Structure formats: structure tokens, C-alpha cells
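W.,

You were right to be curious about this one. When I first looked at the sequence I had no strong expectations either way, so I just let the prediction run and decided to look at it fresh. Below is the sequence, 132 residues in total, followed by the output.
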Amino acid sequence: MNDGTFTFEWEGRSAGAGAPFEKSVTNPPRRLQTPLKSRETEIFVPSQLTHARKVMVQGLKEGDRWTYDEKRQTLFVVTKDNDAGHKHRISVSVDPPPRPSFAVNDFWGDFGGRISALVFLLAGILAYWILQ
């Protein structure tokens, strides 16, 4: 989100008897109940991200093509090889990259001050108790 880049992967599927209920998002069915009728892949890319920027697509093979329609906020990718089992992987980015919309935080950045204060408080109580 901070650098305006994402990667998208998909795989060509064949028609035939499949088992759609036994698969998941991470393990999709390799065979479909009905054949695909389109070779075009559509990806939503918000125009808020692409406005006044150049959209760049990397990872396409020879004969593949793409176009971005900002009004429809859609990236259209047409691949030459759509055989079953053929994997596609593209990286989409914009130039110039957007300004970071938020700072990535970590545990110590969020809670370090509170933990330090608690440690000093406990050390002070312990020192007072020992010196009494």
C-alpha cells in the first residue's frame, strides 16, 4: 500500500469434471465445470492510485498485452498462452510512487514507552522496599 505495487498470479484452467467444493482459495480447482469463454483478465486498480501516474506492468510474456482504463478503474490483461496449468504472474506498479500513507509500526514503537515506564516504576518500588 505504501509503494503502490502489487503482484497478481493466476493459472490457466481446463474444462471437465471438477470438484469445486473440495478446493479453497489457496488451492483452487484445476478443472472447471464449464470452459472459460474469455482470455482477458480484469483487475480493479483504483484511479485514486493511478491518477497522474504511469501504470507499469512487468512479468508478461511475448505476445501478452495489457491496457489500463482509468475511467473504469480496470487493468485488462490478455495472455497468449492460456493452456491448462500455465501460470501467470505480473507485478503492477505506478510511477512516481505514492507518498506513504502511514508509517509501518512495530511492538516497541507502540508499547516501548509504556513498558519502560512500568520497568522504572517497579524498580523504584523495589528500591524503596529494599532500602526501608
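Here's what jumped out at me. The chain has two helices and eight strands. And, maybe more interesting for your project: The mean pLDDT is 85.

Coffee later to discuss?

I.
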